[in-house]
Amino acid sequence: MTHGSSFPPPVPDPSEGEPGAGVVPPGTIPAPLIAVEAGAAPLLPGEVLDGADEPLHVASPAEVPAEARPATRRAQRQERAKTSRAGRDLPVAIGVGLLLLALLLGSMFVVPQLFVVIGAAACAVGCWEVSRALQWHSGVPVPLIPLIFGCLALPFGATYGGPEGLAVAIAASAVLVTLWSVFEGRATAAKSVTLSLLTLAWVPVLASFAFLLFREPNGPMLLLATLLLVVSNDTFGYLFGAWLGKHPMAPKISPKKSWEGFAGSVGGAVVVGVLVCIFMLDVSWWIGVVLAVATVMASTAGDLSESMVKRELGIKDMSNILPGHGGIMDRLDSILFAVPMGYLVSVLAFGTVA
User: Fold this and answer.
1) How much is the pLDDT for 63?
2) Which terminus of the chain has a lower count of CB atoms within 10 Å, N or C?
3) CA distance 211 to 208
4) What distance in Å separates the CA atoms of residue 213 and residue 343, rounded to the nearest whole number?
5) Among the listed residues 341, 311, 302, the one whose alpha carbon sits nearest the alpha carbon of residue 126
6) Other CB atoms within 10 Å distance of the CB of residue 160
């Protein structure tokens, strides 16, 4: 039995006394009535059937097992209190987020070599999530081994070889991905190469700009500033969107993202960017304005891009390896688009200042 957003064929209304006399419209199954398939486990109130065409009957609360009955109102309020609008367990999500933040800052400012290792590992997990989702949806194999090679080669090439080293690593990884699929001899080799190159470009190529930024003079602070702006974009966008959001930016891709939230993201990030440039980077305030606006635009594009891909694939999260967050890619979506912009703006702006 599948559940979804569509509603099944007409369901008999028991109040009319004869089969087929009435239809229960979507979302209006009255408690205490619960629509269930014949011989199947009962549905809870508010659940609907997707594509069900087998015989249905309407069950009374007495037919519902105790363990399947809705929670009490107090339990429901407690559950809602700890769950965000996105359906996340807030205490768990905050705990995992703080742990990731501590690991990131410790590696950036205490053990720089560890930062590269952690970044390469995150890219590898991200490639695994994306390749698995693409393969599941398309049925076309997406070889993981050459992608893992790229996830190792690109961050280390960018860190220790600069732009030139990154270019060589990208070329080598692209060749390996292509030859790997070709030598497998599958009939879907062309599609496999396309999906593999998409994964390579989306995850390790974009992420490598974080390592280019990291190796610049005062690189850890520059990267931290970019990450703070990404966090500002998400935080202020959520607050203003929940408060004032009425006009969706892309209702078919991300219905909860509004223009009011985007305006809040820009305003909040500009304030944070100016403060960061004055007190952290000791540069002119206007660089913070440029960096903030560019970062918000890139972060929003990254967020919408992953939402579009997930909607096309029919999934909510890329994986569930991060409790309360989903997958690695669900946390990297904005960052992957923001760090190339942060690198470009930082290098150009600081070059001008110098």
Assistant:
1) 52
2) C
3) 5
4) 5
5) 302
6) 11
* Bridge partners, residue 258, by sequence: 248
Rounded Cα distance, 171 and 175, in Å? 6
The parts of the chain modelled with pLDDT lower than 50 are 1-59, 61, 64, 67-76, 79-84, 86, 352-354
| C-beta separation of 143 from 196 below 8 A | yes
- Cα dihedral 136, 51, 305, 243 in deg (nearest 10): -140
What are the distances in angstroms from CA 94 to CA 98, 100, 163, 235, 319? 6, 10, 36, 13, 18
pLDDT of residue 28: 43
Number of residues written out for the chain: 354
pLDDT tens sequence across 178-226: 999 889 888 889 999 999 999 999 999 999 999 999 998 889 999 999 9
**What confidence score (pLDDT) does residue 10 get?**
42
* Rounded CA separation 271/291 (Å): 11
Assess contact for 145 and 200: CB atoms under 8 A: no
Question: Which of 152, 128, 281 is closest to 207 using CA atoms?
Answer: 152
Interhelix angle 90-109/112-138, rounded to 10 degrees, is: 130
Phi first, then psi: give them for residue 254, nearest 5 degrees: -140, 90
**In this predicted structure, what is the pLDDT of residue 220?**
92
